[in-house]
């Protein structure tokens, strides 16, 4: 091995070590950041709410019998809407949204954390109830509603 060959091989070694350290540092600091901003369900919901507000959705309040607002319905002109509860349901319970059309009340689904997307086209109202975590066939503890017509 000549002196020139030996010098080339030893000059590459610091670059390899530097690259490994750089990748390790990126993984050490980058992975937790990505997990907290991309994988965190609460932050995903916050970004969803922000995008609906940025899209100029109309905010309709849902109030309980005492007149206190417990949720909002963000509604777009095309009838798409996002139900946003002020807080998550207590343990063992879930919020369930219902569509009202005439005398017919049908479940729109159980709210995961605090939001539920729906189509309100042709509906008279949307109401929200507090139910067992798995939901109910009919609303049992109605918290309030929002009239759409």
TrEMBL record:
> Which key words tag this protein in UniProt?
Membrane, Transmembrane, Transmembrane helix
A Pfam family for this UniProt protein?
RskA_C
Q: Where is the Anti-sigma K factor RskA C-terminal domain?
A: 40-140
Q: Which InterPro entries match?
A: RskA_C
Transmembrane regions listed in the UniProt entry = 12-35
The yes or no answer to whether the keyword Membrane is present is yes
Instruction: List GO terms (cellular component aspect).
Output: plasma membrane
Q: Protein name, please?
A: Anti-sigma K factor RskA C-terminal domain-containing protein
Query: Which species is the source of this protein?
Result: Deinococcus cellulosilyticus (strain DSM 18568 / NBRC 106333 / KACC 11606 / 5516J-15)
Recite the lineage of the species.
Answer: Bacteria, Thermotogati, Deinococcota, Deinococci, Deinococcales
């Amino acid at each position: 091995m000549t002196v020139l060959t030996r010098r080339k091989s030893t000059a590459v070694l610091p670059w390899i070590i530097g690259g490994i350290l750089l990748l390790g540092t990126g993984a050490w600091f980058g992975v937790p950041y990505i997990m907290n901003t991309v994988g965190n369900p609460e932050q995903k919901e916050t970004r969803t709410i922000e995008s609906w507000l940025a899209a100029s959705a109309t905010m309709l309040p849902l109030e309980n019998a005492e007149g206190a607002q417990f949720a909002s319905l963000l509604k777009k002109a095309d009838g798409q809407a996002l139900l946003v509860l002020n807080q998550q349901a207590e343990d063992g319970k879930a919020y369930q949204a219902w569509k009202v059309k005439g005398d017919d009340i049908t479940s729109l689904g159980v709210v995961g954390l605090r939001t539920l997307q729906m189509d309100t086209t042709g509906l008279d109202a949307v109401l929200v109830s507090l139910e067992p975590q798995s939901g109910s066939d009919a609303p049992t503890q109605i918290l309030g509603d929002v009239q759409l017509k």
